[in-house]
């Protein structure tokens, strides 16, 4: 689980300062305020860490099949503030609750640009178990390796260039001798945390009438939810202890949302093609023939049960095309699945209904304020600004920004005023 994030000179952000990340973290704010940039920073590191080229410093994307996001060029990532240096940095802390050799650690990396336009690591800092290891870029592309508070480097040269932003080179590991194993374990722990990120974007594929099945389980659901149906087919058709686990979980939440009674995987005759059947009020319909809201929320529900335990699920606008009651139920989904499966949710949303239900769950003590973080993002001049919403044990927000969700009371008063004016004018 990621427990802290900080961005400096990254896209809309001059400096986020330290952002606390909890099992359930919600990002709210106006359009184009910078919410997505917070999410994208972790996606940038994930696609860099899984790059087939270990010498890459930062994978800005461009491969539509393998990359999560296309960041463009260095200039597109750098915050466009004339007063800042031409570098940006990303840092985070993680805690995997004792799953790996390194249970807690920190990552910080700053990036610059060469004269040829390439993005390069300027400084990589890894921390764990009270130790600190640095790789600092010097002249002509050489890197110095420093440990803890050492003023003199352990080594210096081109052979010590970091790999994929997160790892020290084999030469650096060797020169660190006994400390090399700790650095290697730390890099593996960081890579594992990044690999556990699962991202579902706001644009999801429309359903087909039927689907083939290759008799295997997909690796992930994809950023557009393209693998969600494959996950459902595998859940229903592959025998084992977890058969129908995903299908049953999805069905349960479709029912709680009031959009369906259950979901069924049905084979078409004796063919190798299958259809998804949505049951509601005694009527069975193909997924293609029901409202778009069902198909759009389906990947959200699938990934919640398909993601391996301990994953970090990043969601953008999970509420899209859902009616208010269903949007509210998403809050309960996140709380329940996070607790049940050890899943971390980072959610960007515009939904007042989702947010209000979270307040209620905190007030009911169904959700813990300590396990929940909510942030409001707004634009201030050229940079984004982050406001931590101060929520008490009764779910009340003490510092809610004015007017974001509109003014419901003010609208009611205005309607009443207009009604009285019309009645008076008509002599009623």
UniProtKB/TrEMBL annotation:
Pfam families: AAA_21, DUF3696
Stated name of the protein: DUF3696 domain-containing protein
Domain DUF3696 stretches: 369-415
Organism of derivation: Sphingomonas aracearum
Gene3D superfamilies (alphabetical): P-loop containing nucleotide triphosphate hydrolases
Record-level Gene Ontology MF annotations: ATP binding; ATP hydrolysis activity
All residue ranges annotated as the ATPase AAA-type core domain in the record: 24-354
């Amino acid at each position: 689980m990621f427990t802290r994030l900080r961005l400096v000179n990254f896209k809309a952000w001059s400096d986020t300062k330290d952002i606390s990340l909890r099992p359930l973290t919600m990002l709210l704010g106006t359009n184009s305020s910078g919410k997505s940039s917070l999410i994208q920073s972790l996606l940038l590191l994930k696609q860099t860490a899984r790059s087939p080229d270990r010498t890459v410093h930062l994978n800005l994307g461009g491969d539509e099949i393998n990359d999560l996001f296309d960041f463009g060029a260095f200039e597109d990532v750098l915050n466009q503030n004339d007063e800042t240096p031409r570098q940006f940095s990303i840092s985070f802390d993680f805690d995997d609750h004792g799953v790996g050799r390194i249970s807690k650690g920190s990552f910080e990396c700053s990036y610059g640009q060469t004269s040829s336009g390439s993005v390069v690591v300027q400084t990589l800092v890894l921390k764990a178990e009270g130790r600190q290891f640095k790789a600092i870029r010097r002249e002509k592309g050489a890197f110095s390796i420093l440990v803890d508070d050492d003023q003199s480097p352990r080594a210096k040269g081109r052979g010590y260039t970091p790999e994929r932003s997160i790892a020290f080179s084999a030469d650096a590991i060797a020169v660190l001798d006994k400390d090399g194993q700790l650095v290697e374990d730390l890099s593996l722990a960081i890579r594992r945390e990044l690999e556990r990120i699962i991202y579902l974007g706001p644009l999801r594929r429309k359903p087909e009438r039927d689907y083939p099945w290759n008799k295997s389980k997909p690796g992930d659901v994809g950023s557009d939810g393209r693998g969600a149906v494959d996950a459902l087919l595998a859940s229903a058709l592959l025998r084992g202890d977890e058969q129908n686990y995903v299908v049953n979980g999805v069905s349960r939440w479709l029912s709680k949302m009031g959009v369906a009674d259950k979901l069924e995987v049905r084979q078409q005759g004796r063919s190798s093609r299958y259809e998804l059947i949505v049951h509601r009020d005694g009527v069975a319909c193909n997924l293609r023939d029901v409202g778009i809201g069902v198909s759009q929320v389906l990947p959200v529900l699938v990934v919640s049960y398909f993601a391996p335990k301990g994953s970090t699920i990043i969601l953008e606008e999970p509420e899209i095309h859902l009616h208010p009651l269903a949007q509210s139920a998403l809050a309960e989904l996140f709380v329940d699945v996070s607790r049940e499966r050890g899943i971390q949710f980072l959610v960007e949303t515009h939904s007042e209904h989702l947010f209000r239900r979270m307040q209620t769950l905190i007030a009911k003590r169904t959700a813990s304020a300590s396990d929940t973080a909510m942030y409001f993002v707004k634009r201030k001049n050229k940079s984004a600004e982050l406001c931590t919403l101060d929520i008490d044990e009764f779910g009340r927000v003490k510092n809610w920004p004015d007017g974001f969700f509109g003014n419901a009371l003010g609208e009611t008063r205005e309607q009443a005023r207009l009604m009285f004016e019309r009645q008076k004018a008509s002599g009623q």
